[in-house]
Amino acid sequence: MTIRLSENIRSLRKQRKLTQEQLAEVLGVTTGAVYKWEAGLSVPDISLIMELADFFDTSVDVLLGYRMKDNHVDAIVRRLQEYRRRKDREGLAEAEKALKRYPHSFLIVKESAAIFRAFGIECKDKAMLHRALELLERSRLLLDQNTDPEINDQTICAKIAETYLGLDESDKGIALLKQNNAGGLYNGKIGHILAQQCNRTEEAAPYLSEAMAKITADLCDTIIGYMNVFAKRGDFASAAAILTWGVTVFTGLRKGNKPNFLDKVSSIFLAATAQMQFETGDTNAARESLMKAKTLAAFFDASPSYDESDVRFIDRIEGASVHDDMGATALDAIQGVVDEYEKEAFTALWESVAKQNSTGCGENQSGAQPTV
What we know:
By secondary structure, the protein is mainly alpha-helical. The protein folds into three domains: about 5-65, lambda repressor-like DNA-binding domains (434 Repressor (Amino-terminal Domain)), CATH 1.10.260; about 75-180, Serine Threonine Protein Phosphatase 5, Tetratricopeptide repeat; about 205-360, Serine Threonine Protein Phosphatase 5, Tetratricopeptide repeat (Alpha Horseshoe). Helices cover about 70% and strands about 0% of the residues. The protein contains 19 helices and no strands. The chain has helices spanning about 5-15, 20-25, 30-40, 45-55, 60-65, 75-85, 90-100, 105-125, 125-140, 155-165, 170-180, 185-195, 200-235, 235-250, 260-280, 285-300, 330-340, 345-355, 360. The longest helix is centred in the middle third of the chain and has 33 residues, at about 200-235. The protein is elongated, with a radius of gyration of 33 Å.
C-alpha cells in the first residue's frame, strides 16, 4: 500500500496556483505545517485531510493516493506470477501475505511455492528452497481444489524433486523423479542429472535415449500441427519454413548413410512443403521440393528401416516399435499427400516429377546419401 499524500497536496496546490502561505491561510495553519506535509515530514490530522479534500474538490482516498489492491485469489496469483517473471523479490513478501490471507488455497500455496523455489534456485538460498519444499508438500494436500489438467501429484512431486536438486540432495531428487516417471515424462531430466551431477553415465544413457525418441515423436506432431495452423491462416511461407526446418533436424539424426524412419517422414514434409510453395504460386520451388521428396523416398524405400536404433542418439528401446498410417512405402506416403490435396494442377506436377528417370530427378542408384 502506497500513500502519496505529500505529493498530492503539492500537486493540487500548484494546479490552483496557490503558494504554501496561501494554502496555510485557507486552512488556518502555519506555512511551516504545509511545508512539512509536502516534504513528507508530517501528516495533517484527519479533520484537516477531510478539509483539504473538500477544498480541492476531491475524495479523501484520491487525496491520499490510495489504491486498493484486488486481493481476490486470481488477482494475487497473477501478481505473484508477474513478480516471478520480473525477478522482483518483493514477490516473496507478497507471497507470505497471501499465505496468511488464504492459507488453504491451492492456487496461492502453489504459486507461493513457485516463487520461493525460483528465487531459491537462482540465489542458491537454502532457506528459500526449504520454504518451497514446505509449500509444495502443503499443495499436495490441497490438490482436490485443482482444476488444471496439466497439474497433478506427479508434476508436483517433480517440482519437489527439482527443489531437492537445488539443495544438492541429488539422490532424493532422482528417486522421486523415478517414482513419478509415468509415461517417461522425466526421462530427459533423470538422464541429465545422472550424467552430470552423479557421474552415472551408463545408467543415464537409456533414459536419454528414450527421451530423444519421445522428443522426436513430439517434434513430428508439433511441426505438422504448426503447418496446419499457418496454412489455415494463409501464411504459407511460415508453413513451408517449419517443414524445411523439420527436414533439416531429421536429416541430422541419420546414422551415416543408413536410412531410418525419419527419412520417410521427411519425404512427406518435403511433399507438404511443395504444397505450401504451390499455394504461393511458386511452381518452380514446388517442383524442386517434390523432386527432393521423391529422391529421399527412393533412398528410404531401397532399404526401409523402422528400427528406432537406426536413428542417431537413440539406442534399442525394449518393447518399442514404429508404426504409421502413411502408406506401405515412402513413395506411397507422398502419393497420399498429393491425393489429399485434391488439386489437379498439383497432381499433374507430381506426376511429371514421378515419371522422370533417376538421373532427371537427382537420385543416385548407388545408394549414396541424398541431399535435401
